[in-house]
Amino acid sequence: MSTPNSTFDEAFAILILAFIAVTASVSIGSHRRRTAGATATGGSLVLGPGIRNWYLENLQPFEELCVRWRVSPTTLTGAQLAGSVVVAACYARGMLFTGGWLLLLTGSLDAIDGRVARRINGSSLRGAFLDSIIDRYADSFSLLGLAAFFHDSWVMWAVLLAMLGGLIVSYTRARAEGLGADCRVGLLQRPERYVILGFGTIFGALAERLTGPIAAQPHALVSVVIIGLAFLVNLTAIQRVVHVWRSLAETPHA
Amino acid sequence: MPESSPESHPLLGKGKRVVGTFLLLLGSGIVLESGAHWLGGLLMLGGGAAFIRGALEARPRTPAEHAAPVAIDAHSESRL
After folding, report:
1. CATH number of the domain that residue A136 is part of
2. How many domains does chain A divide into?
């Protein structure tokens, strides 16, 4: 790794931040002008429908390409798994900015695989099952990479808590649906987790280059993001448990 | 890759700009965080070229495209 806070690093980090700010504001502004007056649906408290719509619009060319080339959804799922291993390696080596970008890429693969499967009539129960399993591995790999990076700090425990919470959030829904209950609730679902962790590590790494360790705490911003993520993911798990508990109260045991 | 008319190519314009932005930022991350400056520089060059080509190929949208925003299928992504 290069030495943090050299003049080159600072200037380069400023350039990157400026590029991200200009590109994002131009792209989102153009999307807003085009969709002004249209009613966007979907979205959540963390990722509003407008941002979600903008994100999916940016992924549409790749979805079209996958459909045209008849890329199988299993291939996309496999690429997601391979990508998450690379993310873990980047995080473990302290390449938080690079890992964050690759995490957003693997999240995007996850977002389009189901859509591609439906469009090429490739949906199957086996595919859905495999996708769910790979998703759990992919989630865990990225967080394991961060845990390895923070192995000598208390932040590692927050990372592990976030990983545990993510698994419980998924398991709660799978178990609830197995029992016949609906469980489409929760503050942080997978796309939100990807966005928070991805952008958190990207901007955390840039902030570190610009400001250096804040109050002698290295990676202060990334640590705050991880703690927030761990809290919110576990809150989501509790939300789901309470929701399923209440909805099963009226269901007699078979 | 099958040959197709420029209008029907799905990676025209927007797709190239998105790929370009992604590669540019990935390359800058590698330059910033690893010793492989040549790889980062190469990705940045490729990304910059894709971004510029995408920006040059941007075509004006038809009224139908203006009126049709991308529909969100609330259940389309894996939401486990």
Report:
1. 1.20.120.1760
2. 1
Tell me whether residue A158 is in a domain: yes
A135 as an active site residue: the answer is yes
How many residues does this entry show for chain A?
A: 254
Q: Is A190 in contact with B21 (Cβ distance < 8 A)?
A: no
Structure confidence by residue, pLDDT tens digits, B42-55: 999 999 999 998 88
Of B24, B15, B23, the residue nearest B59 (C-alpha):
B15
Per-residue pLDDT reduced to its tens digit, A92-134? 999 999 999 999 999 999 888 888 888 887 778 888 898 899 9
Q: Measured between beta carbons, which residues in chain B are less than 8 angstroms from residue A165?
A: none
ipTM: 0.81
Closest CA to A222 of A81, A95, A52: A95
The verdict on residue A28 lying in a domain is no
Backbone dihedral angles phi then psi of residue B11, each to the nearest 5 degrees? -95, 10
At position B11, the amino acid (one-letter code) is L
* Contact between chains at B77 and A98 (C-beta distance less than 8 A): no
Closest-approach residue (CA) in chain A for B12 = A61
Residue A158's domain spans which residues?
47-247
Q: Is residue A15 part of a domain?
A: no
pTM: 0.84
DSSP string, A97-162: HHHHHHHHHHHHHHHHHHHHHHHTT---HHHHHHHHHHHHHHHHHHHHHHHHHTTTSTHHHHHHHH
Q: How far apart are CA B23 and CA B46, in angstroms?
A: 7
With respect to residue A13, please indicate whether it lies within any of the assigned structural domains. Answer: no
Q: Any alpha helices (H) in chain B, and if so which ranges?
A: 14-33, 37-57, 63-67
